[in-house]
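Q: Given only this backbone (749 positions), what sequence would you predict?
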């Protein structure tokens, strides 16, 4: 693989070189276009500023010309007409004054009219008409501003519409003082704002240009191209107001509130007057020349890029065949590696399957031996012939040894996936919490137990008793990994559909799973130990301190339950074991089966106790016979003796054919107790044949080697019970008596 990578480097370098050159070419073209764009905008902005400064100066001089005319007329008012307001009002009848005013107004095209206003605000003389009409102008802002004080300069009014022409106008007013300083009258010049529109029209206008005159607060006074409906309206722009407040000049790019076009704008305030002149041009017109240049430059860049790409393609073709050969060789090697990995995985599965078959067979034979020993011990104990503490102690030790052997065979069967399970919907969060007290006593005070469980975790389908045993085994392993104490964390979470398949095992089918993780803070395991952790009889503990079946049992339980297991461990960082158990199917209330809850009584087989009542079951009459079928003579003899000791009449058979003959000859047989694994005819086959002729006969199948599918089907039939070896004789008798009682009551018949 490394050689393939080295051989592909020349082609990669050519590709990297090509990408780099293309990036430089594209980046250079973009930089040139961006620079031209900036220069075009800057050049346009500079031209707009120059033109704006010229128009602002021209506008200021235009207004100043009217201001000088108004001031000159105010100074030329005869002294006798200034003596009082009444004297000033007598100018109403002076025709010569009217002619003088007309002559002054005609010399200034921007001036609409000149007028004299009396101290009381009435019109005295007027250029448009003689005698002047009777108009009351006392509400005009210029009259209100000048009637009480003389500012010493002309007053420029706010824009307003003329009472005569209805055109938008500006008024420049001068105060005429009496000798005592009082108000004699006013001289007012009227500026036609349409003059500025005509003036802007006469300029050499480039496409997309715009010229406008504004009051300082944003009121539009004049504009070209004309927009009559917008004259007198106010439109403010905060950015322009801010720049004008600082320097009296503003420049920006914005969308015009007048025509909606995006414009580059230059604005300048007039000196001494609250007026603003704006010059603008549409952005599209300004960039039209740049866009034509951009097309040419982009086309040249594209041609260069195509030429470069063709050159690089020609270079790459020289390496293409070589690269293809290398890729084919790499794929072939990958296929070989994948095949070797698959073969190794198959060998491991075959190894585990062979071990499972071996351990299952050993557990079956061992269970038969334990059954014989347990029945014999029961007879010794029930006979009452043992005397003395030493004899009773020996009997107790022998019983404990049988129990330990039974537990060992249960672990063997769990690994072999041949134990008989009683799966039920179980709330694993509640199940783990119920085990907390037992775990604390088992682990000791040096280990802190922490339980984390998510809310709304659905029930899992698992045998609750076997789950408790698996959890206890994992906790004991964690305790041994933390001799100096530590923390054991148990987490219960729900995984969505498909996630567990990726995380746990390739053999785990997609679906919903409940994940129970047992994590310790112990010493951890190296990779070689971790790879063999689930093998039966493999242990790192000293001789006599571990059977090596703990993790094997857990592995078998999860696999037989339709789930999986994942181990994670690193030296010095602890170990985490995660059990994946499938979600329990949602059943209707009528279909739901009773759940075995933590704390319910169980017999030696791990199933529910034969009887939960307090009163003893009635012993059947001596005429009722029990047929005991067992191929192992030692087990058959011991069980027959125990049943006979209990007062039951027992007929014995060593196989299925002999049992059928006895059943046909003796109609008084009331219960059939049969082993499952027998040569020739199994207990399941015998049960089916018997049920054809005697469908109501109670049947107890005792097995030390669980064939899951067959036993599950039979266990669902009424009147049939499945028991596991080794079973205490008292428990066997209890099951027999319960089956008889159910048969008499009509249950399962």
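A: Predicted residues:
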């Amino acid at each position: 693989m490394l050689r393939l990578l080295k051989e592909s480097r020349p082609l990669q370098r050519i590709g990297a070189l090509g990408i780099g050159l293309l990036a430089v070419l594209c980046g250079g073209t973009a930089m040139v276009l961006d620079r031209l764009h900036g220069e075009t905008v800057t050049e346009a902005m500079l031209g707009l500023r120059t033109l704006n400064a010229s128009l602002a100066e021209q506008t200021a001089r235009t207004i100043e010309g009217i201001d000088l005319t108004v001031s000159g007329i105010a100074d030329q008012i005869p002294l006798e007409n200034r003596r009082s307001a009444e004297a000033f009002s007598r100018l109403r009848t002076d025709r010569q004054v009217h002619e003088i005013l007309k002559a002054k107004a005609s010399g200034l095209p921007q001036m609409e009219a000149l007028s004299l206003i009396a101290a009381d605000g009435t019109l005295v003389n007027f250029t448009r008409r003689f005698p002047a009409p009777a108009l009351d102008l006392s509400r005009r802002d210029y009259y209100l501003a000048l009637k009480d004080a003389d500012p010493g300069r002309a007053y420029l009014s706010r824009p307003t519409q003329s009472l005569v022409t209805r055109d938008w106008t500006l008024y420049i007013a001068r105060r005429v003082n009496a000798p005592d300083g009082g108000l004699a009258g006013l001289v007012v010049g009227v500026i036609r704002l349409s003059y500025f529109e005509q003036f802007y029209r006469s300029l050499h206008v480039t496409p997309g240009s715009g010229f406008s005159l504004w009051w300082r607060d944003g009121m539009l006074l004049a504009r070209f191209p004309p927009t009559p409906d917008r004259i007198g309206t106010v439109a403010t722009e905060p950015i322009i107001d801010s720049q004008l407040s600082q320097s009296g000049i503003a420049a920006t790019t914005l969308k015009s509130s007048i025509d909606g076009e995006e414009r580059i704008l230059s604005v300048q305030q007039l000196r001494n007057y609250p007026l603003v002149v704006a010059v603008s041009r549409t952005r599209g017109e300004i960039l039209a020349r740049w866009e034509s240049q951009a097309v040419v430059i982009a086309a040249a860049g594209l041609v260069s890029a195509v030429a470069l790409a063709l050159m690089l393609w020609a270079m790459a073709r020289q390496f293409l065949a070589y690269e293809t050969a290398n890729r084919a060789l790499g794929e072939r090697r990958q296929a070989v590696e994948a095949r070797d990995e698959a073969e190794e995985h198959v060998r491991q599965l075959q190894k585990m399957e062979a071990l499972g078959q071996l351990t299952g067979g050993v557990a079956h034979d061992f269970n038969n031996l334990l059954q014989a020993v347990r029945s014999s011990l029961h007879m010794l104990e029930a006979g009452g012939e043992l005397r003395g503490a030493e004899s009773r102690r020996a009997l107790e030790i022998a019983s404990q040894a049988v129990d330990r052997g039974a537990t060992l065979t249960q672990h063997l069967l769990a690994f072999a996936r041949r134990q008989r399970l009683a799966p039920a919907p179980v709330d694993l969060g509640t199940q783990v919490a119920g085990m907390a007290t037992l775990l604390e006593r088992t682990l000791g005070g040096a280990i802190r137990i922490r339980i984390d469980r998510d809310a709304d975790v659905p029930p899992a389908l698992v045998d609750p008793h076997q789950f408790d045993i698996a959890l206890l085994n994992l906790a004991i392993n964690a305790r041994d990994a933390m001799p100096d104490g530590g923390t054991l964390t148990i987490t219960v979470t729900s995984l969505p559909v498909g996630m567990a398949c990726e995380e746990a095992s390739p053999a785990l089918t997609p679906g919903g799973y409940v994940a129970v993780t047992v994590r310790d803070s112990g010493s951890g395991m190296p990779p070689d130990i971790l790879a063999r952790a689930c093998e039966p009889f493999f242990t790192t503990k000293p001789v006599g301190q571990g059977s090596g079946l703990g993790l094997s049992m857990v592995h078998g339980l999860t696999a037989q339950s339709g789930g999986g297991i994942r181990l994670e461990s690193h030296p010095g960082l602890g170990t985490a074991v995660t059990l994946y158990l499938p979600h329990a199917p949602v059943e209707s209330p009528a279909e739901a089966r009773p759940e075995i809850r933590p704390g319910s009584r169980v017999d030696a087989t791990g199933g529910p106790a034969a009887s939960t009542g307090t009163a003893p079951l009635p012993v059947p009459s001596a005429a009722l016979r029990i047929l005991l079928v067992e191929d192992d003579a030692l087990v058959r003899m011991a069980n027959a003796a125990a049943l006979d000791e209990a007062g039951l009449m027992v007929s014995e058979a060593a196989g299925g054919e002999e049992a059928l003959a006895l059943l046909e000859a003796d109609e008084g047989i009331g219960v059939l107790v049969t082993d499952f694994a027998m040569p020739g005819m199994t207990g399941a086959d015998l049960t089916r044949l018997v049920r054809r002729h005697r469908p109501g006969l109670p049947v107890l199948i005792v097995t030390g080697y669980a064939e899951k599918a067959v036993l599950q089907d039979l266990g669902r039939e009424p009147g049939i019970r499945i028991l596991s070896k080794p079973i205490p004789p008292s428990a066997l008798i209890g099951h027999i008596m319960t089956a008889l009682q159910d048969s008499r009551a009509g249950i399962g018949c």
